C-alpha cells in the first residue's frame, strides 16, 4: 500500500542509479540525499529519516522499502524531464518555487544570494565581469551564477511544467 503525500516540503533519498535526477531535483529546490550505498544501508537510512521518501529504479529495493512501511517511489525509466514530472506529480511538489529555493547540485546545501564582491576570489575573471547575480552554497562554498547552463535549466523547467499541465481541452469546430 502506498500513501500519497501532499506536502511540498517532501525530502528524498535517491539511490546510486539516480544521481542525475538527484542533481536536477536539487536545482529545482528539492532536498535530496544521494545515497550511493548498499540496499541494507539505504533501508537503515530510511529508518532514521522516516519522513524522507526513497527514489529508486530498483524494483526489489522499492518493494523492501514499502514492506517496511517507508515511502518509496519507483522512478520510471524515461528521460530526465519525464522522471522529474513523475516525481513532482507523485508527491504533489510545486515547481513554482524554483529558482528561489535552489539547492546546491553538488552537496544538497542551501544556496544564498550574495554580493558580487564575495565571490571575486571564487570565480574566473571573465565570469566575474560578465555576471551580476551570484549565489554561494552555505555548506561547500561553491559559487553559482546564471551562466550558460541557466538556459538549459529554464528549458528543462518549462518541459517539466508542460508535462505536468493538464491536457488542454480540444476546441470544438
Ligand atoms: Zn554545496
Describe this structure in words.
35% of the residues lie in helices and 16% in strands. It is of the alpha/beta class and 173 residues long. It has a single domain (1-105, 149-166), classed as Rossmann fold (3-Layer(aba) Sandwich), CATH 3.40.50. The strands form two sheets. A four-stranded parallel sheet has the order 2-1-3-4, with helices on both faces. Strands 5-6-7 form a three-stranded antiparallel sheet, with no helix packed on it. The model is unreliable at 1-8 (pLDDT under 50). The structure holds zinc ion.
Topology summary:
Layout: E1 12-15, H1 19-27, E2 32-35, H2 39-48, E3 53-56, H3 59-67, E4 71-74, H4 80-90, E5 111-114, H5 125-130, E6 134-137, E7 143-145, H6 149-164
Parallel strand pairs: 1-2, 1-3, 3-4
Antiparallel strand pairs: 5-6, 6-7
Bound molecules: zinc ion.
Zinc ion binds next to loops.
Highest-level CATH class: Alpha Beta
Measured by DSSP, the beta-strand proportion falls in: 15-25%
Element pattern in H and E: EHEHEHEHEHEEH
CATH architecture: 3-Layer(aba) Sandwich
Can you count the beta strands? 7
Uncertain runs: 1-8
Total count of domains = 1
- Helix/strand class: alpha/beta
How is the CATH topology named? Rossmann fold
Compounds present? Answer: zinc ion
Radius of gyration, in Å, reads 18 Å
Shape: globular
Amino acid at each position: 500500500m502506498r500513501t500519497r503525500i501532499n506536502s511540498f516540503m517532501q525530502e528524498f533519498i535517491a539511490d546510486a542509479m539516480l544521481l542525475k535526477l538527484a542533481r536536477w531535483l536539487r536545482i529545482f529546490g528539492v532536498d535530496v540525499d544521494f545515497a550511493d550505498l548498499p540496499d541494507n544501508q539505504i533501508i537503515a537510512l530510511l529508518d532514521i529519516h522516516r519522513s524522507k521518501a526513497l527514489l529508486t529504479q530498483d524494483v526489489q529495493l522499492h518493494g523492501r522499502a514499502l514492506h517496511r512501511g517507508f515511502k518509496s517511489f519507483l522512478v520510471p525509466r524515461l528521460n530526465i524531464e519525464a522522471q522529474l514530472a513523475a516525481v513532482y506529480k507523485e508527491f504533489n511538489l510545486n515547481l513554482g518555487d524554483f529558482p528561489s529555493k535552489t539547492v546546491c547540485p553538488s552537496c544538497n546545501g542551501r544556496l544564498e544570494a550574495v554580493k558580487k564582491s564575495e565571490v571575486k576570489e571564487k570565480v574566473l575573471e571573465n565570469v566575474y565581469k560578465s555576471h551580476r547575480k551570484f549565489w554561494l552554497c552555505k555548506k561547500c562554498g561553491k559559487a553559482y551564477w546564471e551562466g550558460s547552463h541557466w538556459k538549459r535549466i529554464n528549458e528543462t523547467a518549462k518541459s517539466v511544467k508542460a508535462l505536468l499541465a493538464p491536457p488542454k481541452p480540444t476546441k470544438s469546430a
